[in-house]
Amino acid sequence: CSSLAIGTTTGYRLFSLSSVEQLDQVHESNEIPDVYIVERLFSSSLVVVVSHAKPQQMNVYHFKKGTEICNYSYSSNILSIRLNRQRLVVCLEESIYIHNIKDMKLLKTILDMPPNTTGLCALSINHANSYLAYPGSATSGEIALYDGNTLKTACTIPAHEGPLAALAFNSTGSKLASASEKGTVIRVFSIPGGQKLYEFRRGMKRYVNISSLVFSMDSQFLCASSNTETVHIFKLEHLTDSRPEEPPTWSGYMGKMFQAATNYLPAQVSGMMNQDRAFATVRLNISGQRNICALSTIQKLPRLLATTSDGHLYIYNLDPQDGGECVLIKKHSLLGSGKMEENKENDLRPPLPQSYAATVARQSTVPSTSTMPGYSEDGGALRGEVIPEHEFATGPVCLDDENEFPPVSI
């Protein structure tokens, strides 16, 4: 979550998310119109683009050089693309193509899959655990888990009763979150075993369309956004384990009685009672628009980022200790010209209370950028270490701007 890519009617844009106050535009391209998919490989110069003009064609560019590495055409429209350091996955409605990202060779085509009209799929960003998840059924919430490294099916997970709407891996590929089309319950499973670890209730009053599901980098939090104005952030902890020494108060006594009573209730009822509520929430000032959220660390503080389809980026502060309502501190426009022009009235950040600053200072669970290696266009000086050669599959790859990926002719 260190950069943002947006597709527009005129092309695509890439932004750096290293600062709250300033939104730096890294690159803008107007060569291909009506871009509806743009995926950047971490902080590298490799970007994959799909346009409505040619919805069956995937174009892979080295945007710093302004050169096309390769392009591939498929039998039907491309619905989504996922990539990590090892694999590039192209999802069509009834098939999935898995490429080796170093030379773009096609390694596997998954054909025996139900219709996937939204192109729903998730790929672990951890190339050591290149697990791929996609719907295993068009009528139920079954998840098909595929190992992108061994190119074999890992397992199927009966996650929900209704069809799936959202899937997301955590940063290590050890957990998978899912939501159904109802959008009321979010579940987290262990990977690759598929055991249910957590179950969160987003709401009971109305069904919603979950548009974004994402873990924080340290896997402590899970964020879910939908077509409503509320974004929910859940904390991945077992509440029964975190409060062993509860004081002998009336409320504590009643809580224990309630927990005991669930043992005598039907499984469906007791399960719903034991579900955890949201740890923190965000109230967007828009409703009904598609949005994508992310949990990131910017300038050493935890933030929630929300990007909406009308072309705005909202940045909120997240209190990792107490949660509650997140505070909007900045709003950026993504559709301006050149470097983003910001008005002073957009600076919505209130003075932070001392207790919150002290709380954040004590929080050491979020890994620093220096311990999170990734592709780096600055040689590792600003965005983490350069990935060692041994972390890749066999074959020479030089991760610098002169020869980031070997040219491929298709």
UniProtKB/TrEMBL annotation:
GO biological-process terms attached to the record: protein localization to phagophore assembly site; response to stress
Query: Mainly resides where?
Result: membrane
**GO cellular component annotations of the record:** phagophore assembly site membrane
Alphabetically list the UniProt keywords. Autophagy, Lipid-binding, Membrane, Repeat, WD repeat
Disordered: where is this region? 361-382
Signal sequence residues: none
Where is the protein localized?
A: Preautophagosomal structure membrane
Could you cite one Gene Ontology molecular function of this protein? phosphatidylinositol-3-phosphate binding
Q: Which domain of life is it from?
A: Eukaryota
Q: DNA repair: present as a keyword of the record?
A: no
The membrane-topology field of this record reads:
Peripheral membrane protein
Compositionally biased residues, Polar residues: 361-373
- Into which family does the record put it? Belongs to the WD repeat PROPPIN family.
For this entry, the protein name equals WIPI1 protein
Q: Which organism is it from?
A: Oceanodroma tethys (Wedge-rumped storm-petrel)
High-level lineage: Eukaryota, Metazoa, Chordata, Craniata, Vertebrata
